[in-house]
């Protein structure tokens, strides 16, 4: 069987989303402390993680997912690899393919790099995108859908829900994956940010035409009747010094707290966050850790289960 790659949210149909989230939902009971985590679904397979950008949740969840499924894992650290000697990324991938690795999980700062590697090597090995530049993060979008299915009961229940995403919209790969996936499920997305974190007018018009997404710089307007609220981390590693200097201004005008979400959002609303959280910048620590509202910890558990399903989908079909 030819391997499959998971490199773009655009490539996933509703049936793909349904299959992976349904399989991941069955695996969720394994993601508990003290639970015996031994399956043999990928016994004899090898998964390499190749992260050229720091990560805790995504990297560790992919590695744990592979190990629970019975696969061997290899961590290819760029700092300890021949990349430091001038080897190209393509040569590194070629080396891993030749060694008989079955899947490579790639995170890179370059937009489109996992997609390019899948085009070149996808007939020989499964490539999974763990986040590329500011473009896409397909498994983050899928795990957030799984978290919402756990909250609202089914994939169909997401139809017509209002989701508000706030923060550094311009530099967020998470926004790209959510627009592509949520639009297929009938989720109404509103993007909220001050002008210095908003895409250009041309980009906004393009996104609106393609995904029916709404934009507003008005904080309270964006929260009105929201079922799902997701603040984004202000990504200091992707913004310039001027934008970084505006973090205090952002926190003053756009920080989520119990009062403003309680006044504006729909009863029963939930908070998501792709992590890591900048406490008291995009959201107060109290709200982020409120078990009645926040589903951030559930997202972490769903991340392991969803990536188990994604690895199996790519390697075994």
What is the CATH topology of the largest domain?
A: Rossmann fold
> Major β-sheet, in short?
5 strands, parallel
Structural class by sheet pairing and helices: alpha/beta
Provide a count of the helices: 13
**Broad shape:** globular
The run of helices and strands is: HEHEHEHEHEHEHEHEHHHEHH
Which ranges are low-confidence, i.e. pLDDT below 50, for 5 or more consecutive residues? none
What's the pLDDT, averaged over the residues?
93
Count all strands and give the number: 9
Q: Judging by the overall fold, what is the CATH architecture of the largest domain?
A: 3-Layer(aba) Sandwich
In what order do the strands lie side by side in the largest sheet?
7-6-5-8-9
Tell me the name of the CATH homologous superfamily of the largest domain.
Aspartate/ornithine carbamoyltransferase
Estimate the strand proportion. 5-15%
Helical content class: 40-55%
The tally of domains stands at 2
Please tell me how large the radius of gyration is: 19 Å
Q: Which CATH class of the largest domain?
A: Alpha Beta
C-alpha end-to-end distance: 8 Å
């Amino acid at each position: 069987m030819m391997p499959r790659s998971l490199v773009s949210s655009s490539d996933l149909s509703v049936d793909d989303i349904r299959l992976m989230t349904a399989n991941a939902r069955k695996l969720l009971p394994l993601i508990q402390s003290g639970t015996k985590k031994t399956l043999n679904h990928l016994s004899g397979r090898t998964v390499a993680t190749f992260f050229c950008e720091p990560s805790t949740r995504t990297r560790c969840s992919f590695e744990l997912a592979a190990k629970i499924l019975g696969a061997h894992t290899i961590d290819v650290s760029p700092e300890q690899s021949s990349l430091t000697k001038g080897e190209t990324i393509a040569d590194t991938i070629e080396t891993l393919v030749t060694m008989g690795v079955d899947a490579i999980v790639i995170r890179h700062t370059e937009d489109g790099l996992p997609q390019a590697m899948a085009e070149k090597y996808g007939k020989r090995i499964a490539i999974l995108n763990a986040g590329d530049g500011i473009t896409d993060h397909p498994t983050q979008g899928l795990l957030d859908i799984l978290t919402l299915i756990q909250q609202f009961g089914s994939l169909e229940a997401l139809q017509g829900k209002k989701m508000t995403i706030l923060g550094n919209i311009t530099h967020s790969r998470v926004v790209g994956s959510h627009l592509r996936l949520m639009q297929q499920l009938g989720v109404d997305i509103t993007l909220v940010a001050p002008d210095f974190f908003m895409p250009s007018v041309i980009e906004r018009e393009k996104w609106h035409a393609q995904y029916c997404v709404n934009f507003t710089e008005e904080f309270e307007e964006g929260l009105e009747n929201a079922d799902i609220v997701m603040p984004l981390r202000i990504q200091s590693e992707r913004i310039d010094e001027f934008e970084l200097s505006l973090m205090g201004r952002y926190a003053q005008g756009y920080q989520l707290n119990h009062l403003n979400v309680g006044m504006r959002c729909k009863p029963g609303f939930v908070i998501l966050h792709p992590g890591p959280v900048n406490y008291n910048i995009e959201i107060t620590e109290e709200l982020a850790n409120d078990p009645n509202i926040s589903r951030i910890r559930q997202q972490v558990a769903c991340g392991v289960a969803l990536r188990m399903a994604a690895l199996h989908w790519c390697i075994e079909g």
